[in-house]
Amino acid sequence: MVQQLPALLIIVPLLTALVVAMASWISPRLCLPLTFSGLALSLAASIGVLMEVIAHGPVTYTMGGWNAPMGIVYVIDYLSSPILVVITSVAILNLISARKSVEESFPGKTGAFYSLYILFTTGMIGIVATGDAFNLYVLLEIAALTGYSLIGLGNDRAPLASLNYLFIGTIGASFYLLGVGYLYIATGTLNMADLARFMPQMADNSMVLFAFIICMTGLFIKMALFPMHGWLPNAYSFSSTAATGVIAPLTTKVMIYAMIRVGLYVFTPAYIFNTLHMSKAIVWVAIAAIVMGSLLALAQKSLLKMLTYIIVAEVGYMVGGFFLGNRMGITGATLHIINDAAMTLCLFMAAGAISYKLKDDSFASMKGLFRKMPVTMIGFGAGALAVIGIPPTCGFFSKWYLITGGMEAGQYGFVAALLFSSLVNAVLFFRIFEIAHFEPFADPHDHHHHGHSETVNEAPLSMVVPLLVVAAALIVLGIYSGDIVTKIIQSAIPAGIV
Amino acid sequence: MKITGLVTVIICGALLIFYAMDFPDFGDGTSPASTYLSPYFIEHTIEDANVPNIVTTVLADYRGYDTMYETTVVFTAGLACFFLLRRKESQNPPARFYRHTPTGITLRIEEGGKLPAEGSKVFMRIDSLWAPDSLIIKNTCRLVIAFIQLFALYVVAHGHHSPGGGFQGGVLLGSSIILFAISNDLRRSIKRFNEKTSAILGALGVLLYAGTGFLCLLLGAHFLNYKALAPIFRSTAAMARSHGILCVEIGVAFAVMAVMIWIYYNLSSAGKHDEGL
Amino acid sequence: MDIIYSAKPLIAILVSLFVIPILISSRSDNTREAWTFVAAILKFIIIASMAPLVLKGAQIQFTLFEVMPHLAIKLKVDSFGLLFALVSSPLWIITSVYSIGYMRTLKEHSQTRYYCYFAMSLSATIGVAFSANLLTLYLFYEMLSFATYPLVTHHQDQEARSSGRKYLLYILGSSIAFVLPAMLFIYIKTGTFEFVPQGFMAGHFTHGTLLVLLLMFVFGFAKAGIMPFHSWLPAAMVAPTPVSALLHAVAVVKVGVFCVARVITGVFGTKLLLSTDLNTVVCYIASFTIIAASLIALSQDGLKRRLAFSTIGQLSYIVLGVALLSPLAVTGGILHIAMHAFGKITLFFCAGAIFAASGIKNISDMVGIGKRMPITMTCFLIGSLSVIGLPPCGGFISKWYLVLGTLEAGKMFFLFVLLVSSLLNAAYFLPIVYRAFFCTDEESMFENTVNEVPTWCLVPLCITASISVILFFFPQPFLKLAHMTAQTLIGG
Amino acid sequence: MENLIHMIGAKFNYIAYIILMMIGLYALIAKNNLVKKIIGMSIFQTSIILFYVSTAYKTGKAIPIVEHGHGAHSVIHATDYINPLPHVLMLTAIVVSVATLGVALALAIKVYRQYGTLEEDDINSQIRIQAGK
Fold first, then answer.
1. CA separation for the pair C241, C235 (Å, rounded)
2. What is the spatial distance between Cα D46 and Cα D36, in angstroms, rounded to a whole number?
3. Is 80 exceeded by the pLDDT of residue B102?
4. Looking at CA atoms only, how far is residue B7 from chain A in angstroms?
5. D and B: touch, per 3+ CB pairs < 8 A?
6. Which of A83, B168, B175, C361 to pair with A98, CA 20 to 30 A apart?
7. Could you list the residue range(s) of the whole structural domain that residue A389 is in?
């Protein structure tokens, strides 16, 4: 059974999605339990694989019994296994949290929603687990298509935002496909490990150089690296919170994972960091992303929009960290994938609960929210602290590695950008806290004595409990980040990188 | 925007062409792409799966896992169109058109007006873009559809030996129904092949594919390793692969057919499933 | 030196955190406050129980999590940390008593929230005191910043909002902008964070880098209130008085100087600083703050604001003492943490009592108040004497050591600074007392009826005042701890 | 010069795909009408398919179906057939592009339902008017 886990991890959700799609026409009541159990099984499988990887090293699974490079293999190693757990847990937590708002927003289509939701998760799992460059493209498109449709059914402006996302996403994915094609005609193979084997003798091959440029450009577009971020804010803020809750934490992060995977295990670190002289330039792009993301976030007047620009800045963190090209930087980028997924999930879940209750997400509507929804705001606060980077939340530790990496690489611009964005984040969130805490201004003479009778407006339990779980996870991830780094991430980074 | 576009396009194009000059020549049989992996596929297809059509073997066996997701993509698209567009209209749509068959008079019935009885022989519900002279079209299509479907089945079944397979056959099957819908009208087509059928059949097709793979997994082999099905088919490993490929091709055909029809229904009527092309 | 591994420091920190759920769920105000007491007393008992061991020269250590390779969240109780913990934890008990009186008299809102964050602040304070490395210190430092924010902005009005903004901007901004990068830089170069008696910086940095790093720490720990990063403290005075009393005279601000002292002694090390003479820079900065703060205090009319500026000045005494790096000066500086704490908290309690009883905040309105509230104002006098540094109050002892320390270090300039500032201290405190008691009936702004605050408020300030006096006669165990600290840190 | 002409002659497949791709890209960037953009997107994707399939071609070789597959005694030579792998990959890519097209059209219909137009500047001005309210 253990050796089948890598397949079950992704096949179970796929089968579930199909069964849910059928069940929605026969007995809609079954959809939610089915969805939940499918994702739960997948989560269990991902945890099992993680244990297996920690205990015995990377796991390889040949699809159809064909060995690489003939067939498609799944390679679950130190890099992918933690991300898999993150994906499945994010999906399941957001599912619980989003249940109420799904039933409200998509009457008669909940089955289709759940089915698309699982397919999206399946795509994400596949991108992470696959060891085949072309298979990655197919799964990328599954995740993208489901993403477009989930985003497209939001408020009035969602379809146009989603259509723009679709155009840009298609360009990005096609660029990636083209890059894979270039690699294919240069080497004749599609398997990642096999491609990496060819790299040393391809160091001055212009096809490979162009493949690198175009692959990375494609992934940069998909992950919304500034200045290619244009699609993200609208797409994420106009869609339903049930959908954003899973798309926002995962899409960009998984794309960054894909970048790291393709960078480290296809083009090899020796090629990108030593042969090419682009990493410095890309780090500067990342710096621009961090600074601009933070500044644009400052200019926003609604919660979701602000969060989306924070995502843009966070993408800069990870891209910059990776292209620092040293162990610390890559460790930071990888750890930040995990942490940022948790942080973003926490914030978007809180935002989901808030907009579920208020039907609005402008700052102005958040007055007095600490009194009305104290528990939600505690969760939101935890997420905010993590984004700012306050210990012992996880955000502090990944930022720590990133800054250390920046200092080691002598990229003080990157260090300054990280600190700057931390400060801006502090301003951003405390602005919200102030509004939620102070307004409407209490009359100084009216020292009312209500105790806790004001918690009546709290979001439903199904939203609050997962939110608190994620909030607690932020701290747990922070406390155990030492273990995560030494036991998992350090082994994920090729030995050549110091 | 036009100028930006032009500049981007020219720069991109120039770069791409510049780098393309290092690529292998067109039709070069000695490039790495042709000499590294593909010889294995070509030389082992008969031995491994007993299927002469190498594309079919690679598609459904060596890289069968990709193809499963390809089918899933199709299904996803159908589901996405449904999710985005489908809406249940109230019983009284804005306006409907009826044709009084004996006289040929067309009636436009406004919202809330009294509608003719459902099974009325005299009044025929027509689309707003209805054209009366459709006798030739209707009958030709009626004649052709059967042949299209027969050919589609041949394409599905004969994918092992000639160009063809599940996708091509599925598209042909789907197009036959779409042709029916175009030549008659959407409502009549939905009556024969309704939305629920297409939705379930689409999922079922993918399920057939994934289920075959899962069956292999249950039988102890790796996912999609059709060799494990040998005891069920009572055949050699190679023949089991061949049969396995047929199973998944049928699944693909179902899925593609159903989804094509489903997408057509949703797109052509903007999700109302009432009037359409 | 004995090292004992025990979870006691962790329990001491957590005890106030664990009580928070109980506080939230308690139905009546009485149970809530009873639980606060339980936590406060437990905390004190646990901390006090560690004192005998530490006084014998042992160290108590506890490692929690290894959050990064070779870098753990680690607790350590040494004489310095214990001294600080021994100052703050009993004061929490006393402040809790005072809070009950103050908050109930003024019928403040959201009292549960108030007690919860108060408990959390104390956890963080003790955490800072028991931190064994820079990372743990930073963790609790930031936790304290956030835990005190809701307390500062307790009134939730426009004034609280702008003060809260200033508070966070200074405290959080400086720690993210200065302390964090400095820490990281040190970590990259040295690979360790552990506080050790002679520091771990030697041999890794150039002179200029050392200076920059030192200044980043001194200013980055803005809770120490070193100018120009001081103005959050007067702003924070909008908080309810118990908060100002415990947090902004003892816990928060002392955490700031504690951090500075820790970094100077445990990270940089005395030998390194003496050999490079960088400590003098810090001494000058501290001296400037001492004089400037005292001068500003003279011009303040709001009693709490005057106290705040006095605190800023007094904090720099401690920094000055530590930065002089002579054994006696360090002893004096560290002892001043304790002595000033008892003195200043008395003053704040008095200010709060005056406000609770009469609603008066400004000094100019307090003419003749001594006749109306004799006990309160007597305590105020004792507190003032302690802060000025006159016998028979504890403040005298610490200042005496400081003065001796300047002589020992041979830096007469700082002796002069200490003396001038003592005069200034007297100049801004004694007139208040004088005008409160000695005025003609026409000048008095009050009728001659005795109208003290409720007992809940009165008792605590009497206790702290008497402790201030007692400490003059029996300065142990604080003196012993300060001596030990100076010895281990400086080796003199 | 002769060299260049030779090169273009030998690599015209790449040039063809690049030109197609740029047409698609131009439409995606510069066109105002959403359906035209969708068409551009389709051309863009198709160009990549063309690229892949053209790399599979070997001059004068047979399509990848083994002749006399069953019962043949002769050995199969890989050099006799063109490369099957790109065809397989492109079958997937075609399906993906069709699926994307479907979803794009569905979204375009929704946009049309919302704003009554598919011209992007009209839609944007409508959004601006709404935001101004």
1. 13
2. 15
3. yes
4. 17
5. yes
6. A83
7. 299-445+452-498
B169 in a structural domain = yes
User: For residue B70, is it within any domain?
Assistant: yes
Closest CA to C355 of C280, C457, C472, C253: C457
- Distances A432 to A304, A385, A428 between C-alpha atoms, Å: 12, 13, 7
The reply to whether A438 falls in a domain is yes
Q: What is the ipTM of this complex?
A: 0.86
CA atoms of C432 and C295, how far apart (whole Å): 16
Distance of CA B78 to the CA centre of its chain: 9
Best residue of A394, A403, A415, A453 to probe chain C, by most C CBs closer than 10 Å: A403
Write the CB contacts of C46 (distance below 8 Å, at least 6 apart in sequence): C8, C11, C12, C15
Residue B53, both tokens: 């059509």
3 state DSSP class of A130: strand
Strands B123-126 and B105-110: unpaired
How far is CA A280 from each of CA A86, A287, A293, B15, C36, rounded to the nearest angstrom?
A: 30, 11, 20, 22, 55
In sequence order, what are the residues at sequence separation of 6 or more whose Cβ sits closer than 8 angstroms to the Cβ of residue A358? A365, A366
The answer to whether the CB of A116 falls within 8 A of the CB of B79 is: yes
Q: Provide the residue range defining the domain that includes B162.
A: 53-88+131-268
Contact D88 B63 (CB under 8 A): yes
Residue for token pair 């904090």: C315
Determine D/C contact with 3+ CB pairs under 8 A as the test: no
Please count the other Cβ atoms lying within 10 Å of the Cβ belonging to residue B3: 8
A414-469 pLDDT tens trace: 999 999 999 899 889 988 888 887 766 444 444 444 444 444 477 888 889 999 99
Burial of C194 (0-12, 13-18, 19+ CB in 10 A): middle
Mutate to test the interface with C, among A433, A434, A480 (most CBs of C within 10 A): A434
**Judging by DSSP bridges, how do beta strands C3-5 and C59-68 pair with one another?**
parallel
Q: Is the pLDDT of residue A390 over 90?
A: no
Give just the sign of the alpha carbon dihedral A178, A182, A188, A190. Answer: negative
Number of domains in chain B: 1
What are the tens digits of pLDDT across the range A308-334?
999 999 999 999 999 998 999 999 999
Within 13 Å, how many C-alpha atoms sit on residue C322's CB side? 30
**A345 assigned to some structural domain:** yes
Distance of CA C463 to the CA centre of its chain: 18
Are the C-beta atoms of residues B245 and B56 closer than 8 Å to each other? yes
Contacts of A156 in chain D (CB under 8 A): 114
The pLDDT of residue A450 is 44
The pLDDT tens digits for A54-81 are 999 899 999 988 888 888 999 999 999 9
What fold does the segment set D2-61+78-132 form as a domain?
Helix Hairpins (1.10.287)
Q: State the average pLDDT for chain C.
A: 85
Q: What is the mean pLDDT of residues B254-275?
A: 90
Taking the Cβ of residue A320 and every Cβ of chain B, the question of whether any pair is shorter than 8 Å is answered with no
For the segment C77-86, the average pLDDT, to the nearest whole number, is 88
B156 inside domain:
yes
In order, the DSSP letters of C16-72 are: HHHHHHHHHH-SSHHHHHHHHHHHHHHHHHHHHHHHHHHHTT-EEEEEEEEEETTEE
- Where is pLDDT greater, at A178 or B102? A178
Q: What string of DSSP letters covers C388-440?
A: HT-TTSHHHHHHHHHHHHHHHHT-HHHHHHHHHHHHHHHHHHHHHHHHHHS--
* Number of separate helices (H) and strands (E) present in chain D: 5, 0
**pLDDT grade for A255, boundaries at 50, 70 and 90:** very high
Q: Is residue A161 part of a domain?
A: no
For chain C, what are the domain ranges?
3-490
Residue in chain C nearest A400 by alpha carbon: C184
Predicted structure pTM score: 0.90
How far is the first Cα of chain A from the last one, in angstroms, to the nearest whole number? 37
